[in-house]
Design brief:
The complex is a heterodimer of chains A (114) and B (115). By secondary structure, chain A is mainly β. Chain A is built from no helices and 11 strands. In chain A, β6 (55-58) and β7 form a beta hairpin. The radius of gyration of chain A is 14 Å and the shape is globular. With 115 residues, chain B is mostly beta strands. In chain B, strands 2, 4, 5, 6, 9, 10 and 11 form a 7-stranded mixed β-sheet that branches. Chain B has a 4-stranded antiparallel β-sheet with strand order 1-3-8-7, with no helix packed on it. The chains are: A mainly beta (114), B mainly beta (115). Chain A binds chain B through residues 1, 3, 30-31, 33, 35, 40-45, 48, 50, 88, 90, 92, 94, 97-107, and chain B through 4, 31, 33, 35, 41-45, 48, 50, 55-56, 58-59, 90, 92, 94, 97, 100-101, 103-109.
Chain lengths: 114, 115
């Protein structure tokens, strides 16, 4: 099935470093979402973006909805060990045959060394 | 407020059997979505139910089916199980459709293992 192009695939960083990951798509979306998934659990919503150009923060997390509506990035500042997990971007387009479904990126595996 | 719940947490079946997975949405949510997350792969959209009707379907064979009950809970059925059906099956719920700012919230998943 269709997937977004998410990069990087994995990151190994030291505690305190900043992290940046992004997603690109060949299709436009009207909503971009960022989720975090920990082992044995379902994805947890971190940030939702609803307008092109929108920049939204949630604590140490900042995400932006690209102006072309085909990309988004997520930044994590001053990483801590509990940031470990898999981060997924997801696009939502409520129209046509795509109505209602989320299209996900492949995920970014984040490892934080204390 | 209780989140999305799924049962069972784990399910072991053999090839050719049928599996039934259950999901209860967040109270007040009318839409239920099912996704498959196979090992090493991202989440793939399976099915969407809203107000008891199937609204959209992903690129999966007909042996993946489901239904939504009057209380908005949902069931996913997988018939004639194959080894590659082994995956984490995630359910998500969403508030009123037509409201673009309603997002999907996920349950913890059911891990299905087909032997």
């Amino acid at each position: 099935g269709q997937q977004l192009n998410q990069s990087p695939q994995s990151m190994f960083i030291q505690e305190g470093e900043d992290v940046s990951m992004n997603c690109t798509s060949s299709s436009i979306f009207n909503t971009w979402l960022w989720y975090k998934q920990e082992p044995g659990e379902g994805p947890v919503l971190l940030i939702a973006l609803y307008k092109a150009g929108e920049l939204t923060s949630n604590g140490r997390l900042t995400a932006q909805f690209g102006i072309t509506r085909k990309d988004s990035f997520l930044n994590i500042s001053a990483s801590i060990p509990s940031d470990v997990g898999i981060y997924f971007c997801a696009g939502q387009w409520d129209g046509g045959t795509s109505y209602g479904k989320l299209t996900f990126g492949q995920g970014t595996i984040l490892t934080v060394h204390p | 407020e209780a989140g999305v719940t799924q049962s069972p947490t784990h399910l072991i079946k053999t090839r050719g059997q049928q599996a039934t997975l259950r999901c209860s949405p967040i109270s007040g949510h009318t839409s239920v979505y099912w996704y498959q997350q196979a090992l090493g792969l991202g989440l793939q959209f399976l099915l969407w139910y809203d107000e008891g009707e199937e609204r959209n379907r992903g690129n999966f064979p007909p042996r993946f089916s489901g239904r939504q009950f009057p209380n908005y809970s949902s069931e996913l059925n997988v018939n004639a199980l194959e080894l590659e059906d082994s995956a984490l099956y995630l359910c998500a719920s969403r508030g009123q459709t037509g409201h673009s700012q309603e997002t999907q919230y996920f349950g913890p998943g059911t891990r299905l293992l087909v032997l």
